Amino acid sequence: MSPSAHARPTPPGGERAKRRLALVGGSLGNLVEWYDWFVYATFAIYFADSFFPGESPTAQLMNTAGIFAVGFLMRPVGGWILGRAADRHGRKSALTLTVAMMSVAALLIAVAPTYGQAGYFGALVLLLARLLQGMSIGGEYAASATYLTEASARGRRGLGSSMQYVSMTCGQLLGLGILITLQHTLSKDELSSWGWRIPFVLGALFAVVVFWLRCRLQETEAFTEVSAAGGRPDDTRGTLKALWLHRRQAALVMALTLGGTVAYYTYTTYLTKYLIGSAGMAKSTATLVSFTSLTIFAVLQPFAGALSDRIGRRPLLITFAVGCTVGTYPIMTALRSASSYWSALGLSLLALVIVTGYTSINAAVKAELFPTGVRALGVALPYGIANALFGGTAEYVALWFKDAGHETLFFWYVSGCALVSLVTYVLMPDTRDAALSRAEAEPGPAVAPGAPLGARG
Q1: What is the four-CA torsion angle of 42, 71, 106, 44, rounded to 10 degrees?
Q2: What is the separation, in whole angstroms, between the first and last Cα of the chain?
Q3: 126/70 Cα distance (integer angstroms)
Q4: What angle is formed at CA 411 by the lines to CA 272 and CA 273, rounded to 5 degrees?
Q5: From CA 248, how far away is CA 140, in angstroms rounded?
Q6: Residue 90 — pLDDT band, cuts 50, 70, 90?
Q7: Gap between the Cα atoms of 12 and 2, Å rounded
Q8: The pTM is what?
Q9: How far apart are CA 403 and CA 57, in angstroms?
């Protein structure tokens, strides 16, 4: 099938404006959500000893990484609760709720007392805040993935959904940018003492602005089509019963997420700590490497998403999985020996170019697997489980292997996870041509989402 065969006619100016507003509104909100989520890991190198004093630097980071990982345990819970809300009450309502929860969590971290002020009570506050953030981000991923995919034109869903990881990465960049600014304006003691609280205060304020913005978003056409079912006795939208009917697709989401989430967190949140703790780089240099590589990574996402609209989703996914399976060990080994900013940057970029094959299109692929009535829950719950088991623990596993004196085993762990996803990508059908709404299904014979996987081309 040629690229134009599955594309819808160019929408009128008013429709294009609505879609642009939806993409901007959904993306900006996603940016702030992920800024609040990632800024914890970004600043952990400065506040770890405030909550876990008297231990080795690696042990302190393991404790903070453990709390970071615990937040992932709530992502399936948040995905279930907020995914259900998105399928039953609308994508917009779920998006506004997630950002409100994130604002409260950011404030809790900003005011958390240190060990010297309240003993381990401060660590407990961190834990509670991360649990709330986990619920919020679990719902955010599904709601934003579904919203951005449904709000995009059929022939541009890869491009539209790629904005999810653009905004996610920009959230990380915002946190890193604030860190770089603070590194140049505050002393190391000031940053470790109280300066690390600044980004969390800013995150809470950003979230208030985004809450107002999301209240102005329009609901997607796909959800509006099925919203009339609300209140009927046979309304099963967003329920586990409805998801069970699509359990094979849910299993696919978990398998295709496994390799991608481990690789993503390895080369983003863990990379700075790895360059500092294993390569021996200065904190400021390692931060700059991460900032630069993530900036280029964000720019790559729309190009890869648009490419998937032309050639399909599977070629990009397979390229990622092959590259990650065979490339992780040599890349990580070379990074450990990197002695300069430029060598570390080049290797980091190589890794992130490989990861782009997954990040740029995974939101669209997952959304295209499910029908509208269970799409948000179908994306959220299995994705949240996979992230809780593998994504959230990646940094902790890496530090555990390092502390045990077998750091290189983590490289093989990442490769093994990618290999599992590679098998999944090879066996699964391409989802590019799935129709997400009745309006999309009218012009051509595309298979409706939720149909048996064997029927997909």
Answers
A1: -30
A2: 10
A3: 11
A4: 15
A5: 23
A6: confident
A7: 23
A8: 0.81
A9: 11
